[in-house]
Amino acid sequence: KKISDILEKSAPKPGVPADLQNLLSQYFGENRSVIEIEELKLSDSCFLPANDLTHSFSSYLKEICPKWAKLRKNHKEKKSVVMLVICSSALRSLELIKSMAAFKGDCKVLKLFAKHIKIKEQMNMLEKGVFHIGVGTPGRVKALVEQDGLCLNSTKYMILDWNWRDQKLRRMMDIPEIKKETIDLLEMCIIKLCREGSVKLGLF
């Protein structure tokens, strides 16, 4: 059965932390030891409240990040962002940037996807300016982290665009390439930061 066939018959359910936990366990289950899998487990305290499907993007961000104005004011580091939003495509990134207008105020948002934007340009911008929010695809974010263009030490929030569905009714984790890149990014650095308590994960 195709995902879209199943979805047409069932109402979408909002994502919860257990969904991501299960996804990671299934993904790594076959070729990792029990100890290695333990190290990839995230406790519920690593998560922000998940979107119950009643929120707009701005209202969700206001709920999970009530002290945004203060965080934004205190953020002075270059090559970093306070909030990282991961979604499935460049087009969806632009939609999310538009829909967070009420939340973001006058803070600076950086587009972190590959379409029409060279990675060197993004690295230059991160090096020269202070950005508060990065919105983009897991592949490009991962590449920026690997090439030392983006440092996640001052990142406090990572939001996965979990519930949104494309024209084929697929969520980001239903698209094999996006799923793999998102899990690679989580494994590369995010899970460790979550376990240390510096980053919180949100499922929108």
Automatic annotation (TrEMBL):
InterPro entries in the cross-refs: Cms1, P-loop_NTPase
Pfam families assigned to the protein according to its UniProt record, in alphabetical order: CMS1
Domain of life: Eukaryota
One GO CC annotation: 90S preribosome
PANTHER family per UniProt: PROTEIN CMSS1 (PTHR24030:SF0)
Protein name: CMS1 protein
Naturally occurring in which organism (per UniProt): Podargus strigoides
Gene: Cmss1
